[in-house]
Design goal:
This protein has 6 helices and 7 strands. By secondary structure, it is of the alpha/beta class. It has a single domain, classed as Maf protein, CATH 3.90.950.10.
Length: 200
């Protein structure tokens, strides 16, 4: 069965594809299909954006779709960048510019006040109908500089609780055991598996 991940982000696709391993599905991204309209992520919540992407994409393609929205919430910044994580540093934002802005905003903030939480919400939909929703969280701290060259997004500045390495220093295998996305996808796999049993 075909499963479409509603993203054009190759880094995110690679991570999701690895985490969905074992399911009897062939995983595709939006780049595998022509003419799929971009979904405007204008919701004030991660769930709202993920739901919108899943519903609109699955309705357009008439296929089984998984969509996620993830964000980094920093306690000192009152939950920012949150839903704006991907475009935190403005138009044309890059992983590097987002990390640089975050580190600049926390420049003189002590370690005890650099708590943060990565959140991921995943919505599974089929032909425009929501099948299930899952959420995952990973708590940690923001460092004082970027460390590591693995991963993507805020991985070089985020160290999960109980570890001394950033996500970017860990590498994909270790990160995928504890990350917010792995927790959300673990629950989503159960949703997908149950649905496939009914579907087949």
């Amino acid at each position: 069965m075909e499963l479409v991940v509603a993203t054009r982000n190759k880094d995110k696709l690679r991570e999701i594809r690895a985490l969905l391993k074992g399911l009897p599905v062939n995983v595709f991204s939006l780049d595998s299909f022509k003419g799929v309209p971009d979904v405007v992520e204008d919701s004030s919540t991660l769930e709202g954006n993920a739901r919108k992407k899943a519903v609109q994409t699955s309705k357009f393609l008439k296929k089984f779709v998984v969509a996620d929205d993830s964000g980094l919430e920093v306690e000192f910044l009152n939950g920012d960048p949150g839903v704006y994580s991907a475009r935190f540093s403005g138009e044309g934002a890059t992983y590097k510019s987002n990390n640089e802005k975050l580190l600049a905003l926390l420049k003189d903030v002590p370690s005890s006040k650099r708590k943060a939480c990565f959140k991921c919400v995943i919505v599974v939909a089929d032909k425009g109908k929501v099948i299930g929703i899952s959420e995952g969280r990973c708590r940690g701290k923001i460092g004082f500089e970027s460390k590591g060259d693995s991963g993507f997004g805020y991985d070089p500045v985020f160290t999960p609780d109980g570890y001394k390495k950033t996500f970017a220093q860990m590498g994909a295998v270790q990160k995928n055991k504890i990350s917010h996305r792995s927790k959300a996808l673990s629950k989503a796999k159960n949703i997908i598996s149950k649905y496939l049993l009914l579907y087949r």
